[in-house]
Specification:
seven-stranded mixed beta sheet, five-stranded mixed beta sheet, alpha/beta, 12 strands, about 40% helix
Length: about 400
């Protein structure tokens, strides 16, 4: 039985071992606790559990052993004190904002975030009186100029989707501390294998576990990682009440995904690097966006704060949307889908899918052009991926 884990263990060891508490059956693999409720020995014990005076399970909306194992494992990998697992990556963002912000508060966000996150901030958080301003991800002075007395949160994804811009997390953490703001970093593209924002000064890390944590496109889920107060009490309290809950089965799938995350992320990164170098030389490609390329404007920064460059890249096809759609439609191996982080390579046209709900002006500000194509590079042979893309690029 493992009731605690050695914090000196490497992240790949934590991914396999952290958080597991074996039952009396002495199972080797973590079990799925498919139960909605739990039995108490006495009425007094039930009362103590509900009051928080006695630890233990109450109801699987907010206490489930399988989900808890996933939470503890991911927290250990990110270097956090607490983790709250949620039903999706978007519910992780929503839970964080509604737990930690109130009417009249202000968010400064990178422009280079998932299109649905923009809709969440503007359309839905805006209804509650929480305002959002957007700034270029890599312009530190723009971040500072956008901060108001009522600003309580800085929010970003790094690397960005889909242009692979890289933010200086340490610099933004210093800025957030100076203005008494929380720094929230979406770490979906890198995962804790390639980047650990909490160690660089961030307050909270967000994950869409749907992506690389699962790794095979099977389940939807999310997570919030941070300290015992902000996440362990406030975000957990929101989850307990509002119920954007991760299912035990999905948590178990994510646990299995974490076990192979280290080797998968290295393979994704290797394949993406080779594909980026091929595309960079192609006569029908005008620009490639991947931080692993030495020409990328934040290449040196990415090399300092990441241990790899990830599996997502984008490139501009000469000929605009017609050429981009022609490329996509002529692939035979790659999957035309907007999801990413899968073992299967996926391809999509961001302007009409992931960022399709943004206005033309918002897309232009974010660099999402009609000729832009995003590829989330999978685990197939990279030569086969190149051959498939070459068919459309001709």
């Amino acid at each position: 039985m493992m009731t605690d884990f050695d914090k000196e263990w490497a992240v790949e060891t934590l991914a396999v071992r952290a958080g597991q508490v074996r039952t009396a059956e002495n199972e080797h693999s973590e079990p799925i606790f498919a139960t909605s409720s739990y039995v108490f020995d006495t009425a007094a014990e039930a009362a103590a559990r509900f009051k928080g005076e006695l630890p233990g399970n109450i109801y699987s909306r907010f206490t489930n052993p399988t989900v808890r194992t996933f939470e503890q494992r991911l927290a250990a990998m990110e270097g956090g004190e607490s983790c709250v697992a949620t039903a999706s990556g978007m519910s992780a963002i929503l839970s964080t904002c509604l737990a930690l912000l109130q009417q009249g508060d202000h968010i400064v966000s990178s422009r280079s975030i998932f299109g649905t996150s923009v809709v969440l901030f503007d359309k839905y958080l805006g209804k509650t009186g929480i305002a959002t301003s957007y700034v270029p991800l890599t312009d530190l002075s723009a971040w500072e100029n956008a901060i108001r007395p009522e600003t309580k949160m800085l929010f970003l994804e790094t690397p960005s989707n889909p242009l692979s811009e890289v933010a200086n997390i340490q610099a933004l953490a210093s800025l957030a501390r100076a203005h008494d703001c929380l720094l929230v970093v979406d770490n979906c593209f890198c995962t804790p294998v390639l980047q650990q924002p909490l160690k660089l000064g961030a307050n909270i890390v967000i994950h869409s576990a749907t992506k690389y944590i699962d790794g095979q496109g099977r389940c939807i889920g999310g997570a919030v990682v941070g300290d015992s107060k902000l996440v362990g009490e406030e975000v957990y309290g929101f989850l307990r009440t509002a119920g954007p809950t991760l299912s035990p089965f999905n948590a178990w799938v994510f646990l299995k995904g974490l076990e192979t995350l280290n080797v998968r992320m290295k393979a994704h990164s290797d394949n993406a690097s080779q594909l980026a170098e091929y595309l960079q030389q192609h006569p029908n490609v005008s620009q490639v966006f991947y931080a692993g390329l030495s020409e990328h404007p934040q290449h040196e920064l990415a090399a300092r704060q990441q241990s790899g460059y990830g599996g997502v890249l984008a490139f501009e096809v000469k000929g605009g949307q017609k050429a981009a759609w022609n490329l996509i439609d002529n692939t035979r191996l790659l999957s035309i889908t907007a999801n990413l982080g899968d073992a299967k390579t996926t391809i999509t046209h961001p302007a009409s899918t992931t960022h399709g709900r943004l206005s033309d002006e918002q897309r232009a500000e974010s660099g999402i052009t009609p000729g832009l194509v995003r590829v989330a590079v999978g685990l197939e042979n990279v030569g086969d991926i190149i051959t498939d893309l070459e068919r459309g690029l001709k």
